[in-house]
Every structure is written in C-alpha cells, then in structure tokens.
Amino acid sequence: APSSEAAPSPEASSSPRIQVVTPDTLAGRPKSTEPTLRKLADDMVRDLRSSVPQATGVVGAFYGSADERDMVMVVAASTFVLNPTGELDDAVKEISGELSVKRLTSIAPGPNGGEAKCGDGESAGVPLGVCAWADHGSVGIIVMFFSSSAAAAAEFVAIRGQIERKY
C-alpha cells in the first residue's frame, strides 16, 4: 500500500549550505607559508569578519610565488546573503580603494551562480586582476598579482570552484 506520509517538499529544504575553504593548492599553485603573506591574509580575514559579522566562516590565503610573478590572494566568507548584487558592490567598493580597481565588468559566475565582476587594479606598482563574487551563501574576492582582469576572469570559475563548496 502507498505510504500515507507526504514526500518532503523542495521548499522545506533550505538553499544549499556553503562552506569556504583554502585548499593546499589552488589551480596548481601551492599555498604560501611566507610569514608576511600569512599575516596579510590574517588581516584580510579579520577585516572581512568585521564587515560581515554574521559570517559562518571566513578564509584568506595567498598562493603561488611573487618571485615567479604568479601569485593569487583569496578571501571569502560563507554567510547568508539576501541581496548578492548589493553585497558584491559593497565588497568591491571596499577593495577598490585599497587596490585601485578600475573598470569592473560583470562576468559569467560559473556553475555556483550568483553575481561576479572583474577589473584591473594596482598595488605598489604591481598590476592586478581582481574578481569578486556574491551569491546567497557566500561572498569572495580573488586577486591575481602581476596579472590582468582578463587573465583573472579566465581562471575565476576554476578558482572559485575550489574555494566555495556547496553541500
């Protein structure tokens, strides 16, 4: 006989839970253990945590090597985001000043959805490719040093996919 229990409705389950992580390698680049960079990453995590107090997790790390002119910085938070577009604009505004990011353009966010933008920036004379994303469960920023917006955008989906885990 058919069960009298109703199947759980899809509405009953909340949207996917998201965890942000910093894997040992990111798009082939090893995580940096350089003390100055680790301190910088810790500072960014602290800053993001204070600007997103309801975050369930905040991570930050550097990958690759400045000597090889192949370095990437990531900082991300898992948090409920009611308005991804607004959250993305806030995140970008915060870093735009520090990294003098110009010409932000929307890019395809990839399979994790939400909103994503990339732009060109500069820090201490070093060209940067900066991308940021926001969806209903996370917000994050990827900075590629010695790079450009186009190069960062080309790797954005792969890098974000290694940082943002849905479960």
Structure description:
This protein has a single domain, classed as Protein Transport Mog1p, Chain A (3-Layer(aba) Sandwich). By secondary structure, the chain is α+β, with helices and mostly antiparallel strands. It has three helices and ten strands, in the order E-E-E-H-E-E-H-E-E-E-E-H-E. The N terminus is likely disordered.
Which helices and strands appear, and what pairs or packs with what?
Layout: E1 18-20, E2 25-26, E3 29-30, H1 35-51, E4 57-65, E5 70-78, H2 84-99, E6 102-106, E7 115-123, E8 126-134, E9 138-145, H3 149-163, E10 164-166
Antiparallel strand pairs: 1-10, 2-3, 4-5, 5-9, 6-7, 7-8, 8-9
Question: What is the percent of helical residues?
Answer: 25-40%
- CATH fold group: Protein Transport Mog1p, Chain A
How far apart lie the N and C ends?
34 Å
Tally of discrete structural domains: 1
Major sheet size, sense and barrel closure: 6 strands, antiparallel
Q: Which percent range describes the beta-strand content?
A: 35-45%
Overall geometry: globular
CATH class: Alpha Beta
Number of helices: 3
Radius of gyration: 17 Å
Would you list the SSEs in sequence order as H and E? EEEHEEHEEEEHE
- Give the overall average pLDDT: 88
Total number of strands: 10
